[in-house]
Specification:
The chain is an alpha/beta fold and 494 residues long. The chain contains 18 helices and 19 strands. The longest helix has 19 residues.
Length: 494
């Protein structure tokens, strides 16, 4: 039996009922943007948490209330005489709540006049952080438990002088020690979560009831791979420590990592009424979150937009899209692509029937095997490569080092119709003469071209289109290699 919650006249919610699960495990609350996820999870947290209700919900509407019923006990937060009346009843449960970036617990108890003092603390006022916090922070954020080996926490006597109620962490990197205030939002979020989990573990269970952990908007502060490692970690914590972890999310990857029985889809109807759909299957839950949410037979991971456009053109030209769903996504640098693909496969975040392919820029071909060996990464389908180097290096080669007259003229005539490409390149070369660090990878040139495109209200898509058309019209055997790779991998299942 769960915790029955009723919400009345809170923000945009008129009347709503939700049964908070009490069986240990990982649960997802999802729905479209502005559907009410954050409001509901904030209300749910008041089952064990007493926040500043004015901060979270604003001035109460007449008759507003949040009512809980569990194990023959009741707890109520309500409006009385135009103000919030805090609950006095105890449901016999404990928990932890981390809200959005706006309403999170990071530095909540720190007055602004104390913030500068955090940076003046000497190392004598710091003690080593616990192994639990250090190692799990490193694993989740960097897949490296030693990454935060020099993580410290403010000593109790220093914290008391500053009137701090929460632990404050410090991180030493390359001889410089920075306070938690200057760490990233993701680091702050995780430090708060890990510290609370550690305290919960030390306390042990409260009777037979599980502990509760409610997290709102966790994907806003974390990279996708870190987010998946966090979810894996929380799943283990929930299982080993009798904890209910409920998080709100609109991340398709995260939703697909949760079993249907643990997905709560918030359906917001046009008349303002709300409904919780549970169990909810991942495809149903994600169908309105983006156009490509019904699952894919193939996911092709590439580095950038140029690579994405090249692959998509091959798929269309060779009619490889028939009778199947294929998603091409640009991830970032080549190491990010490999790690992201590996994490996706290892964590089973793609559908079991989804095949993941990797296509990288050709200039790093000789580095891939060494990197994968070093990182202990392996794939059944080895990465393939584009017919060109990165977009930046390609432009540097064709427009500056060994000028390709055809593509130079195409870009000059059809893209750069304000300031000529001749003048742009001359200006770029003149700037290079005075720079100590030369443009070896083409990034400086690309930045100059981007700026000029912005001035004439164009973007890099106009530039990329001409480059792709030129590549496909050229006698390029590497293109044929890529075509054969895609045909082989995709048509294999037909």
């Amino acid at each position: 039996m769960g915790i029955k919650m009723k919400i009345h006249n809170i923000k945009n919610i008129s009347d709503f009922q939700f049964e908070i699960p009490t069986e240990k495990g990982l649960y997802a609350l999802t729905g479209e943007n502005a559907s009410g996820k954050s409001t509901i999870i904030s209300c749910a947290a008041s089952a064990f948490y007493v926040p500043s209700f004015d901060d979270y919900f604003g001035t109460p509407k007449e008759g507003a209330y949040i009512e809980f019923e569990f194990d023959e006990k009741k707890r109520t937060v309500c409006e009385k005489n135009g103000r919030w009346k805090k609950p006095s009843e105890f449901l016999g449960i404990t928990g932890f709540y981390e809200g959005s970036i706006v309403f999170g617990n990071r530095f909540k108890d720190i007055e602004y006049n104390l913030l500068s003092k955090l940076s003046t603390v000497s190392k004598d006022g710091l003690i080593a952080a616990s192994s639990f916090v250090k190692e799990n922070l490193g694993i989740i954020l960097h897949d490296d438990k030693e990454y935060y080996s020099r993580l410290y926490v403010l000593a109790d006597y220093e914290a008391k002088k500053m009137r701090l109620k929460r632990k404050t962490y410090y991180y030493e990197n390359k001889g410089t020690t920075i306070s938690q205030l200057n760490m990233s939002t993701g680091e702050n979020l995780l430090l708060t979560i890990l510290d609370s989990i550690e305290r919960r573990i030390k306390k042990g269970n409260y009777g037979q009831n599980p502990a509760f952990m409610f997290l709102d908007e966790i994907e806003l502060a974390l990279h996708s791979s870190a987010l998946r490692r966090l979810v894996f970690f929380l799943s283990e914590i929930a299982e080993k420590n009798n904890t209910v972890v409920l998080f709100s999310t609109h991340s398709i990857e995260l939703i697909r990592s949760i079993v249907p029985q643990h997905i709560f889809y918030l359906q917001n109807y046009v008349d303002g009424t709300l409904e919780i759909i549970n169990p909810c299957y991942p495809v149903y839950a994600t169908r309105n979150l983006e156009s490509s949410n019904y699952g894919h037979d193939f996911i092709i991971m590439v580095e950038d937009d140029l690579a994405k456009e090249i692959v998509e053109k091959i798929l269309r030209k060779e009619r490889l899209l028939a009778n199947k769903r294929i998603l091409v996504i640009s991830v970032g640098g080549w190491t990010q692509v490999i790690r992201f693909a590996y994490d996706s496969i290892r964590s089973n975040l793609a559908l079991s029937t989804t095949k993941i392919l990797i296509i990288l820029d050709r200039d790093i071909k000789d580095s891939v095997n060494g990197f994968m060996k070093k990182e202990n990464i392996g794939f059944s389908n080895k990465p393939n490569f584009l017919p060109i180097k990165s977009l930046e290096k390609y432009l540097l080669e064709k427009l500056v080092i060994n000028v390709d007259q055809i593509i130079f003229r195409e870009l000059n005539d059809y893209v750069f119709r304000g300031k000529s490409l001749d003048d742009i390149i001359k200006g770029y070369k003149k700037e290079q003469e005075h720079k100590k660090e030369k443009d070896k990878n083409g990034k400086m040139l690309y930045s100059v071209l981007e700026h000029e495109l912005f001035q004439i209200r164009k973007d890099t898509k106009d530039l990329v289109e001409i480059i792709i058309n030129y590549i496909f019209s050229s006698d390029n055997h590497e293109i044929e290699e890529l075509v054969e790779f895609l045909k082989r991998e995709i048509e294999l299942t037909n």
